[in-house]
Amino acid sequence: MSLARALTHTLFPCYCPCCHSTVDTQGICAPCLSALPLFSPDQGNLLLRADIQTQFNLPCCDGLIACGWYKGMLKRWLCELKLRHRSHAAYLLRQVISHQWQRYCAEQIIDVDAAILIPLPRHRLINRGFNQVMQTWGRVLEAQLTTLPVLSKRMTRSQQSLTRGARLKNQTQAFRLEGTLAGQRILLVDDVITTGATMNAAAQLCRRAGAAQIWACATCLTPY
Length: 224
Ligand SMILES: [Zn+2]
Known about the structure:
The chain is α/β, with parallel strands linked by helices.
């Protein structure tokens, strides 16, 4: 370690956000990263799990992968990023996503040609200033997969206060897809899947555009 780096480290130590012990580089320490309650990639396609299949309505998707349930530290970091715009939360989420993505790749669970990130409606993008999916998954996947900017979303009511049926209706007309995806295997990426309405609406358009296979992918799934 250089003298300048050692000095910086002494003056401004980095702490693991989970166990609060000092770490050499910022972020989650290796033992805490391994201890996070993430879905196990050796379970393969999460849509084959009975509990997940009953809860999430994703008939247009061939498979589903995710990091974990929307609770604990994952929920906290997603809220800090989305609501308080904390870039450090994006950094931690990228660390978790990259770790989980490598585990899925090691298990050879998915084989896709390109990724499509679920967009925000334009007015929400202007208000927030960034798309959290781009800040997390977009940055992790950029070196490994082509990201196709083919999907756009028009203004819809916020999904949060809507019932399951109303969410489906709200999303059905929300997306627009330009171009063709003929024969392509697509990874469709969002931050949180609550009922599956948003993801399924986007998957339906990908299917109509000719996609051969569609994998839904999210940072978190909302527990029932
Ligand atoms: Zn730790």
